[in-house]
Here is the input.
Amino acid sequence: MTAGSARPEGTTSDGRSRDDVALTWHKSSYSNDEGEACIVIAHGPDDAVHVRDSKLAPSARTLTVAAATWSAFVALAVSA
Here is the structure.
């Protein structure tokens, strides 16, 4: 179980497995059309953002972070 949560890790707030939730993936606007160097992101349930390498999709492993964490990362990247 996740800290502060009464549900098993890997499930959504309505009890479904995160694997059962269809995600809509979006390519970075900075990625080229050849797909050589891009990531894709999807906003998931429970305020989660999923990130994966588009070259390895759909079987790629996914990095999942809280939306607030993703927003902080993007703000830092933009200011760099």
In short: Strands lie at 26-27, 39-44, 48-53, 63-66. The first helix runs from residue 67 to 79. The radius of gyration is 14 Å. DSSP finds one helix and four strands in the chain.
